[in-house]
Fold this protein.
Amino acid sequence: SQTIHQWPATLVQPVGSPLSLECTVEGTSNPNLYWYRQAAGRGLQLLFYSVGIGQISSEVPQNLSASRPQDRQFILSSKKLLLSDSGFYLCAWSTSGASTDTQYFGPGTRLTVL
Amino acid sequence: AQKVTQAQTEISVVEKEDVTLDCVYETRDTTYYLFWYKQPPSGELVFLIRRNSFDEQNEISGRYSWNFQKSTSSFNFTITASQVVDSAVYFCALDLGGGSYIPTFGRGTSLIVHP
């Protein structure tokens, strides 16, 4: 069966510090991978998605970036965090090439920028 | 463009009451997929159901049931005999499939079940 991991679970960082959040998927190959952010108020904002190694699509311009160095690894980064980067970050995967892309989510990372 | 509306921001019920969460969607495509997810206080979104646009049969899974009506572009979710563990934020989503990659999520409905 497939599982998705995210770490760290929680993170408190000062403004201006770098960020690296990691997401890995097990039990599937060549998944589509996604990063979402959920700020207070619960709406889900799609940040990035990837359909393959090295292929990243950005949905929202911001000071965040994403990379996919391996098939089942997705990393969210920032060189300098802003207060507005605080939120709950969710990674998700779906089956590549499927007629419908049911997304399965990881446990999330709660980021607080002070 | 696609749109999903969950007009109910928050619903509060007492345990054992039935509750229906509304979801209205907009799309011009004839092939699409609808989803419901549950987000408990722990934060992880849990997949509940997927429905394709060609299957309007209602679905029942234990205390959960879903009513898909293309005529009203709605995909409503009913919890029968609600329990405290049902307290969560529930999201409805729409995906065009075929490698569209990007589903459209509603803003979610917060359900609070009081003992």
